Structures are given as C-alpha cells and as structure tokens.
Give the backbone structure.
Amino acid sequence: MHLVAFSAEHFRNLAPFRLEPHRRFNILEGRNGQGKTNLLEAVYLLSAFRSFRDGRNRELVAFGQERATVFAEIVKKGVSRTVEVAITPKGKRVALDGKAITSLPDELAHLSVVLFGPDDLVLTKEGPQLRRRFLDRAVYAVSPEYVNELRAYGVALKNRNRLLRQAQEGRLDPAVIAAFEKELVAHGARVMLRRLQFLESYRPHFVRVFSEITGGELAGGITYRGLGKASLADATVADLEARYRAVLDEARQTDLRRGFTSVGPHTHDLGFTIGGRPARTYASQGQHRAFVLALKIAELHRIHDAIGDYPVFLLDDVSSELDEERNAQLMRYLDSAGGQVFITTTDRRWIHLTGDTAVWRVAEGRVSAEVG
C-alpha cells in the first residue's frame, strides 16, 4: 500500500504541489513552522477523512480561499485507486475513483495510515483522553465500521446529557431518564467490545516488541480500564450491556447533580504497566519512550495482520524527541518492516535509514524535491 502521486491546493499554508513519493522513505526537511506537519495532515486526511488535529474544517483551508482539495493515487495490492477530499464551506466532500462515496466505513479501507507524533510521546504520562484517541484510531484502522459505532454512541451520549440538563432545570421528571438509556447502553457496549477485541489481538505484538526494545529485561502490559475491577475477558455484548446499565444506575444521581454522564466508554482508559507496576508512576524517561515506541510499532504489525499489507507510516519530528538509543531502534524497525514512510525533521542527520529515500524540502509552505 502506497501513494503513487499526491497533490493539494489551498491546504493550510501549503502552496499548490504535486509529488510522486518514494515507495519506501520520504524525508520532509525544513525549519519549524514551514508546513511539514501540514503535509502529513493532508496524507492523514486521505485516510480518515478528518484531521488528526483538533479544530474546525475551515482551518484546513488557506487564508483567503473558499475551498481546499487533497488528491492522491493509491496502490493497494496491485490495484490503483484515486481519492480526493475537498473542504468547502458546506463541509467535506470525498470522492473515490471520481465518484462521491456513500458508505464511509467501507471506503475507509482504501488507505491505512499510522501517525506517530510528539503528542504520542506523552501517552504514558498524561490523562486518559490521549490514550482513548490512540485506541480508537487503532481500532478503526483494522475495523472501519467502528467509525459508525463510535459516532452512534456519541449521539446517544449527547441525548442523555441533554435530558440530564433538562432535569436539572426542572423541565423533565428525572425518573424518565432511565427509559431513554437503551440506545446509550447498546452503542456503548458495542464500542467497548470492539476495543476489547482489538486489544486481545494487539497485546501480543506489543508484549513482543517491548521485550525486544528493552533487551528482554522488562515486561510491558496493557489493560482496559472502565467498568470496575471485574474481569472483561471473553465478555459478550450482553455482558457489557448489563455492566454498563449497572454503572449508569449507580451514577444517575451524581449525573443529575452534575448535568452530564460521568461513566461510559467516553471516560475509559488504558492501564500501562512495566514489570507489573504502573508506567506513569514508576517508569524512567527512557522506559516511557520505549513503551510508546513499542505501542506504535505493534500497531503497524497489527494492521499488517488485518489487511495483509503495511500501512503508510507518518512520523512527525519524533526522531529529535527520542534519545539516541530509541531513535536507532525506530530506524532499525523501519528498515526491517515494509510500507511507505513519511518522516518530518528539522535536520536529516537524525534520520539513519539504509533503505532508498527521497528528500523533500519544505520552506514557507513550498514543497520541492531535493536533487543529488
């Protein structure tokens, strides 16, 4: 799976460009603030049809312009397809092979992308929101239909929160809220089951990679934290519905006071351990970095298992953030694995790859191939 051609017009600060990326390694070099991350964002947009940054669609369009477009020709298992994403005042419009798409989850399978950026290096340290985002992105990379399941849960969650606020204001009898929770419980259980199924297949890759990175001296672990201390192994949808219903019942009075839903998949977390101890509390700086590096490399392997091909790997200036040892380990993994890679850097001396590479200079939003 790789991009054969890639172009964009009026996307953020980038001047219109058309690239023919290298099949393996593409180094995007330039000073900070020149547009390197914007270029990675454009690639990511072609896969997920949304940005990996927070913000509004309008911010993707260059200042003074009404519309931005990103286009690519993609080859997957010998089959060539085109994808175009247009950002307009009315929202995003997506076309595959020149035709507007009608079924988002099915079409998400056209291009798989894994992103590794500076924000990921604090996955083991910061709050649960980053870990949920990491998990959800990883799940829908192998199960595109998860997008709709997560959205359906989000709609049901907003509806319950609206009812809670109405009850706070005296416009609704609190006793009726339970009757409207069926959809929230059903969608929430499916989201949890999808996450648990992913972790079951992902965890062996992570355990192996983390052991390799640490020379077999440390054991890394990942658990799903959400519905108390009860075991979630082999849980069914019915099991998860029952458990979610129970915690909703328990939290209802608290939620009525606060005006929002305090329990559910939108609050869940991942537990990271090293040697059986919480990584957040006990890990050294090097161990934190090794853990996150293993998370990302394991994600590549899990997607390869699912689709029979390596995803496009986007690395946003992480080489300068990793210590020398972790950076060397990352480069070795990239050399040994397959797939197309885009790496941004302020200094290519951080990048030690033995495979063939193309170097692209990014300066003041202009992208140009470096010759020689």
The chain has two domains: 1-112+309-372, 120-286.
